[in-house]
Amino acid sequence: MQHWSNSELSKLVSQVQFELENIGVVPGDVVVAWTGNGIETLATMLAANALGAVFSSASLDFGHTAVVDRFKQLKPKVLLTCDGYQYNGKTIDRTDEIIQVTSNLDSLELILVVDQIGTRDSLKSFLKFNEWETLNSNPVNDVKYVRREFNEPAFVLFTSGTTGLPKGIIHRAGGFILKHMMEQRLHCDIKSGDVVFYYTTTGWMMWNWLVSNLMQGATIVLYDGNPLFPDESRIFKLCEENRVTFVGVSAKFIDAVRKSGFHPNKSLNFASIRTLASTGSPLNSDNYIWIHENIKTDLHIGSISGGTDICGCFVGCDPTKEVWAGEIQGPILGQDVDVIDENGKSLRDSPGKEGELINRNSFPTVPLGFIGDDGTKFHEAYFEANKGVWTHGDYASFTSNGGFVIHGRSDATLKPGGVRLGTAEIYRVVESMAQIRESIVVGQKWQDDVRTVLFVVLTAGHVLNDELIKQIKAKIKAELSPRHVPALIIQVTEIPITRSGKIAEIAVRETIEGRPVKNLASLVNPDSLTQYVT
């Protein structure tokens, strides 16, 4: 474990900034990081943003295809990466992947490589790069801050849709500051002197949210690796050792620990923790009760929900109100959140009835747009379904206590474990295989989470046996990430399509979850859905 003071972090940021200025990084240039959740990523982001550059990051478990699909759109000038990482006690070497990624990013003028696992030197025959440690010899000056406009781009976060490449969401500098300051200080009661830990990778919006806590004068805890390795106590011990005051995890993590039989408060002291936040997927009532019984009784459980699209929350916790098990306490300040039925009518007076989550007003982190889009795709993504209001793609309902329950996605986006994945990426990889003619992938509610189910139509002469399933999963894992690997792969003879020629992902998802399919008349082959009945 390493500890960094404010002055030590400022020194490192200054040295990174010197390196960036040395190759001519100016406002508007793009700096990207394909790294773990460590001090190097944090310092590079701070140095780049202070110079007015745009920053974007991807998790190390992303394969070369997923990384190139994202970063190539940005034409980055600088890449920070590392030779590999440790996960579940295993060493994962990424040097071959680095060669493939960098060969596809011809805009790069500087590549910084961190030596994490001792294989960095093997890159020297293939790649010109700077070793991260050489930055220690750079001069130390005051960190330079370039004055920037509120609406200037500061970050690009990626979200994957059902068609095309992952969409680069452009976020404005001022919006990030306002949104995160308000959520952290007012909704989460985070203040100077607090210690904040949120389990996240650099490929999830919660990384941006976590590091923003530096604005509050808080200490942040960066952790890289499996939160359940070597056992279920890992994260809880980390919180005890660092006297964490605010801890954030996924609902899936809480569920896994509960089912393991581990009781954290029997061996550990959580006197410092005031708030436990949960996001990624709905936190059910059983887990609320388990948290109070097995972590701490006088603890604010803050279930929150939002998205990469806004790098923040629509609904979340409120330290001034009661907490009801299984419910999110209320809307985020300044956001006119509503739930509407299929006719656009508010369900505010109909607690428990599911509808579409919308936001009726503007807010600081409405994105500037998508990379390479004239506004058409951006408008279609958020404002087409319900004219004039932001439609987020979540099923939700009001509660009689004034809170919310999030029931899952209303669109075709996958969200296993709370991490948003696009179906288009999976199609590109799977359908490049000679054995597969067509495919359709959906998310299915499963054990208080979502599992990914892939249906495939095979080319003549092939059958879906264990060997082919293994090949499909290996290819997806190598080119995309372990998170993209489906839980189930099932053979079908036909994919349902709409009259406009689009595959009907939502119809398949509704079918496998036992819900009625809306607008069956829009399908060319509605009878094909009988193959998807579980």
Automatic annotation (TrEMBL):
NCBIfam families: ac_ac_CoA_syn (TIGR01217), PRK03584.1 (NF002937). Residues 2-360 form the AMP-dependent synthetase/ligase domain. Keywords: ATP-binding, Ligase, Nucleotide-binding. GO terms for molecular function: acetoacetate-CoA ligase activity; ATP binding. GO terms for biological process: lipid metabolic process. Belongs to the ATP-dependent AMP-binding enzyme family. Residues 429-502 form the AMP-binding enzyme C-terminal domain. This is Unannotated protein. It comes from freshwater metagenome.
